[in-house]
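From the pipeline queue, job 12 of 40. The input is one protein chain; the requested action is below.

Action: predict structure.
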Amino acid sequence: MLLASRKTLIIWVTTMATILIGFSVYRSTNNVPKAVTLITHDSFVMNKAQITDFEKKTGFTLKLVKAGDAGSLTNRLILTKSAPIADVVFGIDNTFAGRATDAGIIKGKLSPTDYGDVCFNYDKSWFTKHGIGVPTSVKDLTEPLYKNLTVVENPNTSSTGLSFLAASIDKFGTSGWQSYWKKLKANGLKVTDGWETAYYTDFSGSSGKGAYPIVLSYATSTADEIDSDGLSRTAIINDGCFRQTEFAGALTNAKNPQGAQAVIDYLLSPSFQATFPTAMYMHPYLADVVNPPTWSKNVSMATRRYGDRLNIDANRKAWLEAWSVIFE
């Protein structure tokens, strides 16, 4: 009887241990910090309900830090590599990913989370009001008819800006892209540090009601400008577009690598992936996550993209130096 009781006790202890281990895949232990810090670009959206859900499921407390556009974010992480200011990063894209990995700031591999086509957007009502035909190519933006109408992001600090710089090099060639940018500058092009300012402050077709009816943004941005008739107030120039993919990754020397992996797994969960279209206006990376029905009427995919064949990592520095000489 005593032997049977001991066997029962052993089985019970073993079973409970198995349950607790499974339950504690992410749960903090005495050796794992309870807090995990996620650093992102300024356009990242994670609401309070999602933060609470993450914390409830994993046992970690989540702190969010925003650090400018993707270029500024990458630069900041490189400068703080020896003493990282976060555990995990979201928002480094395929134009800056090589720089991040070459600098050794990412532990392991970057995980793709979402994607979108970087394209110029225009304010349809502005062109109707002024009786001017809408531009149909990026080359049109150098014409006098469109003088002082376009705002873009600085490719040194913005992944959106660097995306179009790569697209323009592919489209106009190594012998023609600098001439194209000089023409853009002479035609009154405005350059801002990041997408948030360009789109929400300078663009006339967004909430900021700025002075520029053409902005470098995303093909999916049109879904953020739906009018009372159910149609978008904006449209894209289906030319000179670049397919951008965003990533998440654990940082080298992170204080909480276990928490970092929990964040990455949460960003790739179906429930969070489903929020990319409505919260960040990007396509979810998971193929089985469905976009909102309104996207079928208001979101166009770029029919031809540029820059995919370029070796951005090998040429980024030289391109940025040449671009900066034009705009210094």
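Job complete. The domain at 2-115+245-284 is CATH 3.40.190.10 (D-Maltodextrin-Binding Protein; domain 2).
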